[in-house]
Amino acid sequence: MTFVMNGKMDWLYQRCHRESINQSFFRPGFLIICLGMLLTLVMYPALRTLGFQLHSALTGSYMSGHHSVILINCPNEQAAKDISRAIMERRLAACVNIFPKSYTMYYWKGEIQDATEILLMAKTRTSKIQRLKDFVKSIHPYDVPEILSFPVEDGSLSYMKWIDDAVPDD
User: Fold this and answer.
1) Cα–Cα distance measured from residue 106 to residue 90, given in angstroms and rounded to the nearest whole number
2) Would you give per-residue pLDDT tens digits along the chain (170 residues)?
């Protein structure tokens, strides 16, 4: 049995000799493919934005989901204004609408609560949603702030272009 195993190991070693393995990893084609994949991953956000712009320019239509609307409830008008201003100063949204008081009922710690709240509606790029959510959570007075986002399915191309101009893509 040992002789057979040694014979197989010798054959395998000769077949997969270290020099041939090293040479295969450093072939020009392999390096070009690896560099191309790395460049694609690094450039993905810019390429995606460029793709959306080319699609819109060539077809004259809107690419669904490139923009989003985000709803945020605030406990009072001052908190709503402060959060809206902070969002705008960081250019996380092109626009934030502040709606007047609304009556809200919700469950909190097993009981039905009721309150008045101020609703914010922000318009932004979908690529900014995670940063916007993280930022709002960090400054919002609620333990569990209501932050809901919805992709825009369609809209005015000139308005969508304005959002793109107002909110830089990272």
Assistant:
1) 31
2) 444 555 555 655 555 555 555 555 556 777 788 788 888 778 777 777 677 667 666 766 666 678 999 999 999 999 999 999 999 999 999 999 999 999 999 998 999 999 999 999 999 999 999 999 999 999 999 999 999 999 998 888 889 889 999 999 87
The CA distances from residue 61 to 12, 74, 157, 158, in Å, are 59, 35, 7, 11
Q: How far is CA 170 from CA 19, 56, 124, in A?
A: 44, 20, 13
Q: Tell me if the pTM is above 0.85.
A: no
Strand order in the sheet with 111-125: 95-108, 111-125, 67-74, 147-151
Contact 70, 93 (CB under 8 A): yes
The token pair that represents 64 in the structure block: 């669904």
CB 152 within 8 A of CB 67: yes
Place of tokens 């810019």: 46
Under 8 Å between Cβ of 137 and 145: yes
